[in-house]
Amino acid sequence: MTLVFNSETFRDDFSFFNSPAAVRRFPFPFDKDAYRYAVNIEPHTPGPVGSVFEFPIDVDEHYVAETLDRALVLAEDSLRSQSLPHMDLAGWDLLELLFTNMAADYPEHFTLERSGDQWHWSNRPLGVEDTFTFGDTASLPSTTTALPGPIGHALGPMEYATRQSQGDFCLLDQRHDDLWMDAGIVTTQADWSLDFDLGMSFHEWHGPVPLAHELGVFDRALKYLLNLQQGRPVRRLNWTMTINPRLDTSPENYPKWGVDRTTVTPDNLGEKVHLRVELQSFFRLPRSNGIVFPIRCYLISLRDLVTVPGWGQRLHRVLISLPPELIDYKGLSRFREQTIAWLSQYDEQATSQTVQ
Ligand code: HEM
């Protein structure tokens, strides 16, 4: 499949856009008119051709622009990518997962040639052409023009591979019947911090999430993940809403984007308010026995979302259904009522009384 990559930004002038094809393949996450937290995990098996589930690692029209945005974040704040020393092997596992799948599923854009431990990687969209010894971190290149950063910044396997990938990645070490966030690269997150969570266990990093602990969601999810099998990845969708198509909504940069929530008006709402969906997948890693958790973020403006029959009505009803704790945690309080009012034009049964 030959992709045409958008020239676009996720900051400043926000020139991000979805082509009509990207709107059609958007992973709309709601299968009913109400939303509650649940252990919504399913096998990460190939989905329909052209869908975001077609391949294990989805590459799309935003690939080049997203990797450039990641480079900008890392240039400002190197703590967005961290790996504790014992996670190097998991980093090589992740590099293998990404490069083998990208080369197999997008051969027009990526090629991986392997001769024993000597690997040659060609990434044509980013102009990267490298030879390295698999497992030998010293053989990896430093930051270059294609992978910009502080001159000569040494790249470990996780950072080298994920600077060339869309979405965030957490690398989890499994020990003492728990998962530990011991490495990651996190530049496109919905208001949480890798630097804060590094070294935490599954229940610790989920500490701020309301309602789900009491429902037993995290106990069940952890039990499931501890038994994840190699070659049988799983996935789930999560969602929130973001003002402007901004990828980096991190706590570190809250002063830059928090104020955006006060700028929504009925006139600009369709362009400014975005549904933000995370395709979260989970892969058991072969050598380290760790787990990698890619979090791939998809953005869509409400103006585009309502062009798909049924989506405007469904989102309208979902937003009405949310418990106060979720409205607060997802940061929707400042613009939810306006958004419900705007979406009501797409819901035949809408009445103003339904807004809480
Ligand atoms: C091991 C892989 C996982 C990692 C690294 C991870 C990480 C995170 C992080 C960092 C947050 C944000 C917490 C905060 O506010 O600071 C979060 C939220 C959440 N996680 Fe996980 N998680 C994982 C697996 C799961 C699984 C399997 C479930 C299944 C139920 C789950 C359910 C949730 C929910 C419901 C939220 C709240 C999201 C929202 O309302 O937007 N997580 N997770």
How does this model look, in words?
This protein has 356 residues and is α+β, with helices and mostly antiparallel strands. The chain has one domain (20-351). The protein contains 13 helices and 10 strands. The strands form 2 sheets. The protein has a 7-stranded antiparallel beta sheet. A 3-stranded antiparallel beta sheet has the order 3-4-5. Strand 4 and strand 5 (128-133) form a beta hairpin. It is globular, with a radius of gyration of 20 Å. The N and C termini lie far apart (46 Å). The relative contact order is 0.15. Bound molecules: protoporphyrin IX containing FE. Protoporphyrin IX containing FE is lined by residues 37, 39, 41, 170, 172, 179, 181, 192, 197, 205-206, 208-209, 212, 217, 221, 225, 236, 238, 240, 293, 329-330.
What is this entry, summarized?
Helices cover 28% and strands 20% of the residues. The protein has 356 residues and is α+β, with helices and mostly antiparallel strands.
Report on the biggest sheet: 7 strands, antiparallel
Between the first and last Cα atoms, what is the distance in angstroms? Answer: 46 Å
Q: Structural class, judged by helices and strands?
A: alpha+beta
**Domains, number:** 1
By DSSP (H or I, 4+ residues per run), the number of helices equals 13
Shape: globular
SSE order:
HEHEHEEEHEEHHHEHHEEHHHH
The portion of residues forming beta strands comes to 15-25%
Give the tally of β-strands. 10
In which range does the helix fraction lie?
A: 25-40%
Sequence stretches where pLDDT stays below 50 over 5 or more residues: none
Biggest β-sheet: strands ordered side by side in the sheet: 1-8-9-10-6-7-2
Bound molecules: protoporphyrin IX containing FE
Q: What's the oligomerization state? A: single chain
Q: Measured on Cα atoms, how large is the radius of gyration?
A: 20 Å
Q: Report the mean per-residue pLDDT as an integer.
A: 95
